[in-house]
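Run folding on both entries below.
>entry_1
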Amino acid sequence: MALAMLDLVTHEEAPPRSPAVHLAGARTLTYADLTGLVGGAERSLRHDGKALVLCAGDRDLPTLLVYLAALRLGHTVAFLPATAEVLSAYQPEFVVPAPGAGEGLADLGYRPGEHSIGGTQVFRRRAAGPADDIFAHTALLLATSGTTGSPKAVRLSYDGLADNTAAVIRALGITSAERAPTTLPITHAYGLSVLNTHLLAGASIVLSDRSPLSLAMWDHLTRAGATSFSAVPTTYAAFGPAHVNLLGRTEIRTMTQSGARLGDELTMRLARMMEHRRGRFFAMYGQTEAVSRISCLDPADLPGRLGSVGVAVPGGTITIGPVRPHDRAAPGEGAVHYRGPGVMLGYATGRADLRRGAEVDLLDTGDLGYLRDGYLYLTGRTKRIVKVLGVRTSLDDLERMVERPDHPSAVICGDDDVVYLFGAGDAAVHEQQRRQLAEALGVPSRHVVLRPVDHLPRTPGGKVDYRTLAAVVDTREVGQWN
């Protein structure tokens, strides 16, 4: 079977003289410059057959060059941490640590290669691995939002990567005139999609590893003439008057959101802000298991479709499957299924799994929702349906019921028929929420317990980290996470 590959650097949409990457310090790489640097990276990644290339960096030039070179060579890129556990599980042929890192790799069976890429040393595995043990069409291994640091990863194909990237370009109308800053980790599906779509469209990226809320990032994207901005809900929720003023100095005309649910009030605030700038705000929905984005809400559909995450990206189909109902289920609510560009090959936990080909046709997203005229409305996660005193209820629905934009809260359920409300705002407001939850559930007040915290723990994708909350639900040491 011939190796698949993807060229995001030299294609008909990317004229050699066009800008490709805007670096800090006002330095710009054209597509011709980028092609030369990627060619050098390819020489460092030459291998007899298909190789696994583990990239431990993020939003830096060496990581970008390695990623683009590996795709052109037909290798598989793993955006996973270079820990002993991960390296033992996957035995990658190449390891490219984060800039300035790399200590300890020699003890784990890796030696420095002859060349560096963008000043970062490339390490090769000393022991020879089995030949042709990676499925020819495997392009990426990405951690899911709940498995960061674990060897479990999503296997994504070259066809899926290319098709989903093209679908998102069509959904957002991305042209070669766009300039997108790397406001999200490129080691995760959403941030990587921003990179892929703009390079495949012949547009350019503003490469920075700064926080999307930092003055340094805004200074860089302003100087580079960025035209778009992508972020998760926690970033948008932290947008203050200073950021609105900074936005006014930029050329940004497109904003996108994905990663977690965005409240209706904040959605409309952002939509009106962009409309005032004669721009567009896109609410989106996606999963790593579908390469990136599954649906997109056209700005013209607001406010009429407020609360929806839109329709399936071009080529995709969303259906609703049956599930056991809960007491607050919406009409037509069920399991959200997706078939279309980008559906994963399957999961992996180690090297042996990389031999396997496609094992998934219809993706069960694990989300609950319903369709109205083809528009998807999400209502929660199937694993967040619990029983409280014998009544099945959705914890996500309870969260929405007491939602306050300026008072972050999260709801989990213990093993003792007790619902726990974690609140990171005014204690008096959260006490009102607690009583509202008890009334809605129809349970004695003692079955809803308030746990005040300094802030809610978040996953790298910006979602509430319910695992961390569950782990501390029986202790008093809450709010101490980073």
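>entry_2
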Amino acid sequence: MELTGLAAQIAGYIAGRAETRLDKFDKDAEKQRTAAQDSTPETERADIASRYLPANWLADAAQRAKQIQMVTHALKFTHTDARGSSVYSPEGQTQAAGMNNGELLSTASLTNLVIDAVGNAAALDVAALLQMQHEGKTLIQYIEQGDSSPLKPFAKDEIQLADWMGAFKQALEGNELSSHKLAKQLYFPIDKGQYHLLAPLYSSSLAHALNIRIAATRYTDEVKLVRKAKKEGRFNTAPVVDFPDTSVHTYGGTKPQNVSQLNSSQGGKSFLLSCAPPNWEVQSKPPLGVKSVFSRNQFGYRVRKEVWSLQQYLLKKVDNDSTKLIRDQRAERVEQVLDQLVQYAAEIQTLANHGGWSVLPDCKLSRAEQLWLDPHRADLDDSFAAERDRNDWQVVIADQFARWFNRRLKHEKLTMGDTELTEWKKLALEVLD
């Protein structure tokens, strides 16, 4: 009888395993014959070939099916010594609200779910058999639906076929649900003094889909060519997809197959996406609604750390004689504040799309601060441009900065008078544009 569809793939799978096993036997026998001048043990070879006849191999596989469990959520990713239950939930049997419409990511979100297997690593060849598919339908799905057609060509009768179906179905059912001291467990309050014990499980099927997706953007030959073109600045029509800040978690050490079949296929490595909080960048906006940028909520907030550091340094040195080292340290801290002043002004001045913002009714700044911070208004207002070109506003801004700086550094142990005011004003004039 000619085999077709999934039955043909099953026969090919068994034949491939037979070929691998017999090749190994022949090589070992050749070594023994060379060493001992013995004849090839044909009887033993024939016995091996007999065990790999489809009906015989399937009967043996059915017996070994109870040693494995087909799962989507594997416990041993939590701890390799955990002895509790893994779970087979291909469609998210306990879906939360929102999973059905794609708002939440779960195994139910996967259009091509790959099922994992846990248990005796020596029986993972049975798991590979159950995962074989034809036209998008796996053998395990046939068995779930009670359809024995892929196995029927190999069974000698209906009784044997029913035995195989029942034995293979055990790989889906698993044992009674249980947790373990090495598993994750959460007591979730539901009422006064009452809790649900939740046991979160790692979705190896979902992780496998993520690993495949990330690997496809990094390691294929096509992607490597595109990334090389990008690095060399050459044009290429294909997009470059990046998953930034990923890390790799290793499961199972030197024996990843002891965790699960999918873990073994990935070499025990799984990608982790970054879940770090974003690095917020302050967006510069025109300082509307304030009378001066030299206030606690504007420039003052930006340099609060630098000003506090300078004040604390001066307090520590207040009783010391002035030395070059002290003066240099003080100058360095003052320079940090002035650098921030230049940067702050530059960020507001480069708001080209908001040029002329200082004419808005919400602008309460003094004329000098308008001339300083809104240079693009000069492109729209000739009188404003002429006034700005005279640079009279620079002296006013330097004086405002000096007075503000003195107030921020003021302390009962520090004297901040005209001498300091003159010094700050001079330094500010040097950096103002």
